[in-house]
Amino acid sequence: MNPNDPAGGSTFRPDALAPLVDQPVVHSTSSDKIRLSILATALVDALGGPVEFHKRGTFPFTTSFIPNTNFSRYGVLAPGTWTDDSSMALCLARSIARYGFDEGRQLEAYWKWFAEGEMSAIGKCFDIGGTTFTALDLYDQEKGRGQPTPAILQHLRDALSAPRNGGNGSLMRVLPVGLAYWRDVENAKVYAKRSSETTHPAPLPTETCEVWTAIIATIMQNAVVPEGSGEAPTASAQRYSKLDLLDFISKYPYNNEDLHKHLTVPVSAPPPQFIHDADKYTQEVYYWHHHPILRLISKTASQQSNRQKPHYTARQRFAFYSGMEDSE
Fold first, then answer.
1. 85 is in an annotated binding site
2. Nearest 10 degrees: CA dihedral of 190, 191, 193, 198?
3. CA dist 140 to 149, 156, 199, Å?
4. Tens of pLDDT along 2-60?
5. Which sites bind Mg(2+) (predicted)?
6. pTM, entire model
7. How high is the pLDDT of residue 277?
């Protein structure tokens, strides 16, 4: 099997990507990791916002901030504008920082974002998912009736636990849970599920939030060095790479069949030839051929290699920022 020949169902590592085993975690303090993770969330959200709602492969390869025209009611959003993903993550992060883990406070924060534009990039809510809207509407009604938080949460679970309500609205915001509670992965997973249940109590989003939070906490455990101690990370943490993380994802004990299908090596794949975990490069080749995530990366890279990258002329960018009409 030739890893550079995608024919016949095989896949390959794109030339632009270094081997996963050669991409170790970057060690830093927990405070740096938290700040930079939240910043990175807003950055990639703003990068992907303009192509939201578009099917993969139907838009030019996006490598820089561009205007967002998806929300015509609010006009054209400036390049670099984050969306509801980041707004809700910021709401959750501030709630945890101020009050600890409190579902009532989290719902209050989400409502203020929706109703008053708190944590929005433009001072108002311009995008909200259907399940999130329904949950916040129910929250407002129940709170207006004077219901306590446990009763409100039970009403939300009763109303929104069906699989049809299994959107990604809780997954896109859950990052702060893993960043705050990374020292205990199992405890963090419990909080992740509870966080999801405030708006998305269906089985798929709750488990997905648990998985993503376990991933975040695992990265933090292998990347964080104590504040001001000057201590070096342990030997195992020094070696922790993206390949180790992929192995963690692949071997996670999923309950949901869809998650298992899309995040693990299929049972139809041949057994791996490497004998032990030290044989990292052979392990990576195996994953490039058989793991759904890497196969998708390989396929996408192959499709994009012949696509023209988006191009905005200097005049077009200047026209947007200055409000000029572009006659081109």
1. yes
2. 150
3. 11, 11, 12
4. 344 333 345 567 777 889 999 999 999 999 999 999 999 999 999 999 999 888 778 88
5. 83-85
6. 0.85
7. 59
Q: Kindly state which CATH superfamily the domain 33-53+63-68+78-240 is placed in.
A: ADP-ribosylation/Crystallin J1 (1.10.4080.10)
| Mean pLDDT, the chain, integer | 87
Domain ranges of the chain: 1-23+256-308, 33-53+63-68+78-240
Q: Compute the residue count for the chain.
A: 328
Collapsing DSSP to helix, strand or coil, 118 comes out as coil
Q: Is 244 annotated as a binding residue?
A: no
CA angle 219, 223, 224 (to 5 degrees): 115
More confident residue, 90 or 312: 90
Encode 31-60: b = buried (16+ Cβ within 10 Å), e = exposed: eebbeebbeebbeebbbebbbeeeeeeeee
Place of tokens 């002329």: 313
Between CA 111 and CA 116, with CA 112 as vertex, the angle to 5 degrees is: 125
Match 């939070």 to its residue by tokens. Answer: 213
Is the separation of the CB atoms in 194 and 101 below 8 Å?
yes
Highest mean pLDDT among 6-15, 201-210, 276-285: 201-210
Q: Taking the CB of residue 271, how many other CB atoms lie within 10 A of it?
A: 6
pLDDT tens-digit series, residues 61-93: 888 999 999 998 888 999 999 999 999 999 999
* 277 assigned to a ligand binding site: no
CA 70 from centroid of its chain's CA atoms: 20
Decide if 295 contacts 273 (C-beta within 8 A). no
Where does the pLDDT of residue 255 fall: very low under 50, low under 70, confident under 90, or very high at 90 and above? very high
The secondary structure of 221-275 as a DSSP string is: HHHB--TTT-PPPPHHHHH-BHHHHHHHHHT----SHHHHHHHS--TTSPPP---
Residue 43, token pair as written in the block: 């950055």
